[in-house]
């Protein structure tokens, strides 16, 4: 089965955890696309009432088009469950997100959710985080100086570019990716990055996910994380 088929499999599997009356955080990315498609069908077929809280314009547009009611996070009083993709998940169920530049909004939605589920194909499961570049959302002002500090710390930073233009996040910030290879102590790194002025949010999602649905050739596997 190719990667896209595995993504579709877990997107369709995850919809089983969404029930009538729920407020659901909807993540971003090519795996979540399949979740939103399956949810659109479920809303129509079962006539259930769902409120979706999207984490990107892309997800919001897709959900609206499929007949899913959408609200801004500021207009809901709680989020029952958020379902999102991930770029890497280690053996302790810590994750890297932000490959799709949405990790700031995804983290705000995730930490305000009662429960979080990640949906991934098997290639995202790893022993250590870090072979996927760690995204930082940074304030453009002074970002060159921040970049130099990160380089001096041996974090191997690169600005995320589109040709000669900086890729911009939803909040009009830049992305710096750190090429770390292997992150042995994610909590220590997280604290270090939290302390650096100019970084709005990093893509380490620690102690957040409750359940992971992994797509394998022989079917989806649901794993309780915490
Ligand atoms: O963190 C993300 C976006 O910021 C995505 O969840 C992550 O990049 C996974 O994407 P995909 O499902 O396309 O592989």
Short characterization:
With 226 residues, the chain is of the alpha/beta class.
Architecture overview:
The structure is a single chain. The two termini are 29 Å apart. A hairpin with a 5-residue loop joins strand 5 and strand 6. The chain has a seven-stranded mixed β-sheet with strand order 3-2-1-4-7-15-16. Strands 9-12-8-13 form a four-stranded antiparallel β-sheet, covered by helices on one side. It is globular. By secondary structure, the protein is of the alpha/beta class. It is built from six helices and 16 strands. The chain has two domains: 142 residues, Rossmann fold; 71 residues, 2-Layer Sandwich (Alpha-Beta Plaits), CATH 3.30.70.260. The structure holds ribulose-5-phosphate. Ribulose-5-phosphate binds next to helix 2 and helix 4.
């Amino acid at each position: 089965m190719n990667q896209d088929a595995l993504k579709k499999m877990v997107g369709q599997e995850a919809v089983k955890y969404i029930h009538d009356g729920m407020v659901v955080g909807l993540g971003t990315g090519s795996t979540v696309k399949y979740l939103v498609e399956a949810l659109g069908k479920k809303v129509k077929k079962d006539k259930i009432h769902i409120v979706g809280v999207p984490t990107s314009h892309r997800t919001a547009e897709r959900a609206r088009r499929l007949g899913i009611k959408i609200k801004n996070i500021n207009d809901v009083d709680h989020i029952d469950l958020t379902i999102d993709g991930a770029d890497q998940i280690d053996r302790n169920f810590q994750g890297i997100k932000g490959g799709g530049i949405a990790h700031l909004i995804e983290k705000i939605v995730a930490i305000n959710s009662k429960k979080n589920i990640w949906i991934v194909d098997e290639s995202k499961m790893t022993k250590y985080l870090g072979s996927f570049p760690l995204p930082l959302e940074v304030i453009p002002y002074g970002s060159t100086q921040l970049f130099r500090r990160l380089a001096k710390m041996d974090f191997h930073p690169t600005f995320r570019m589109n040709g000669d233009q900086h890729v911009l996040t939803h909040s009009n910030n830049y992305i710096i990716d750190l090429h770390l290879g292997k992150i042995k102590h994610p909590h220590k790194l997280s604290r270090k990055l939290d302390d650096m002025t100019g970084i709005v949010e990093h893509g380490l999602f620690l102690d957040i996910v409750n359940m992971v649905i992994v797509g394998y050739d022989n079917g989806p596997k649901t794993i309780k994380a915490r």
